[in-house]
Amino acid sequence: MAAACHDDAMPPDVDESWDLILSWLGRHSPAEAALLRPPADPRDIDAAARAVGAALPADLVAWWRRADGQAGKGQLLPSLYSPYPVREALHSRDIWLTAWNPAAAGPDPDRFAAWVSELDRAPAGTPCAGAWLPSWLPIAGDGGGDDLFVDLRPGPAHGCVREFRRDSGASDAVLWPGVAAMLAEVATALRRGVPIRGDRQIWVYDDGSICWDSAVGRWSAGGSALVLVHRLRERYAEVVTEVRTGGFGAPEGTWPAEFIAAHVARNTELLIATTEALLAGDPEPVYDNSDAMDPATLHRYAAAGLGALADQISFLGSRLCELAEPLNRGRPVAHVRIVDHGQVIVDGRQGWLGVLNALWNRQLPIRARQLRALRR
After folding, report:
1. Is residue 121 packed enough to be buried (19+ CB in 10 Å), middle (13-18) or exposed (0-12)?
2. Measured between alpha carbons, how far is 13 from 19 in angstroms, rounded to an integer?
3. CA 269 to CA 292: how far, in whole Å?
4. Which of 263, 216, 217, 254 minimizes the C-alpha distance to 364?
5. What is the number of alpha carbons within 13 Å of residue 177 lying toward its C-beta?
6. Which residue from 151, 153, 155, 205 is spatially nearest to 178, judged by alpha carbons?
7. pTM (2 d.p.)
8. Quick check: 141 and 81 in contact, CB under 8 A?
């Protein structure tokens, strides 16, 4: 995929990828789609080229010709980035050059300026963590001071997409070879529900907004925020309703409904055991979800049938909610080992409230959605 283009030819995959993204947003996240702006004014695109003093990559121009970023804060690009309108891209670039660079220059600004000038002539993709280079152009921001940018220095990596953080500067890694590659990967991740950038996977909230979860974040929300016990009760009730409704079809490469229900039941037992250990003052409580992912265990639990599993989940969910209430008075910590899709994604001490918050915020909704998908 030729993402780092140097001429005016429009890479054919930009339009194709963007059409796929728009189609997915229209079906699954109208709220995110509503933030997209009309095509950029050609004069703004020309102004961006003049500002950086170089021809813009054809794939970036093609993207801006389809949409001038987003109005408001979205999360279309992983993990938290909202595409900039062209004018906001230039405004962000000005801030980096006029505010961040002087602060980084230290006691010898002339030497700093010479160093910046030297690095600005280096091949695109060359690491530079201590300055914002004039040949860099932001394309998206996270609303908190971090940007995605295209590196417009010369060389084979011209147009590559990298990340700039306000606290640490530019990362050494090239995230994508160009905008076209970025959009193609986002389109695939949306349509197929597969991870992007290692482990980021799309999540659509009930209100239609989206975010890109990490594999860890789907099991442990982190932090010490109080567990919203009423939401936990609601999520268990939702799963129980789905299990009792029945009408499930044969799965395609996923767990059958009986295994999904069996997993929720067994996992809740494990969560209860750790929570009870914490309340009893156990100094080294352990939660290991591997038994709730084991096919032999799921097969054994599934033998009880969906009706019995629904009753079991209802009882166990109520018990866990009762135990969670007193946990909110402290900051309990447990050793957490989490296995997902055969890989260990967490193995260490974690705040237990974060695990329970991820349970109602992600794990139980995931299981309810899986059950509904089997019914369709």
Report:
1. exposed
2. 10
3. 9
4. 263
5. 10
6. 151
7. 0.88
8. yes
